[in-house]
Amino acid sequence: MTTNDRPRPPSALEQDVRERLAALESSDVETLRVASDYLEELAAWKVATAEASSKEGCDEQSEGEPDPDEYPADVPDRASVSVKEIAGTTYHYYQWRESDRIESKTVQR
Questions:
Q1: Which residues pair with 101 in a beta bridge?
Q2: pLDDT class for 49, splitting at 50, 70, 90?
Q3: Is residue 77 domain-shared with residue 105, that is, in the same domain?
Q4: CA distance 42 to 65
Q5: Is residue 102 part of a domain?
Q6: How confident is the model at residue 12 (pLDDT cuts 50, 70, 90)?
Q7: What phi and psi values does residue 26 have, to the nearest 5 degrees?
Q8: For the chain: N or C, fewer Cβ within 10 A?
Q9: DSSP 8-state secondary structure symbol assigned to residue 13
């Protein structure tokens, strides 16, 4: 890379992110390297967190979170589901909005 080939923030980024990156252009080399190291670590952490969340999500679903295919016939797929265990019995509480009303249904599993 020559001095005439100065890098610019990628246009694929949102405007506010490009502006923040452009603000770093006046920083010294050491500051840029420290910021770069931090951003690499942050990206790795986000990937690890997302992977852990997706694994936990799979575990949660197997521990009683119903699959959308298992919703009762009269409950829409967009319904939110709360799973509660009361006195050893598991209940699934489905709740959704229809027009101005909130509908709900309780199913014992």
A1: 98
A2: confident
A3: yes
A4: 31
A5: yes
A6: confident
A7: -85, -5
A8: N
A9: S
* 3-state SS assignment for residue 103: strand
* Domain that residue 79 falls in: 67-109
Residue found under tokens 């009683």? 64
3-state secondary structure of 95: strand
Q: Which among 10, 32, 31 is positioned nearest to 19, based on CA atoms?
A: 10
Q: Inform me whether the pLDDT recorded for 6 exceeds 70.
A: yes
Cα separation, 109 vs 97, in Å, equals 23
Phi-psi region for residue 43, left (φ > 0), alpha (ψ -120 to 50) or beta? alpha
Side-chain-side CA neighbours of 59 within 13 Å: the count stands at: 6
Residue 93: its pLDDT value, please? Answer: 86
Q: Are 107 and 92 in contact (CB under 8 A)?
A: yes
Structural domain contains residue 72: yes
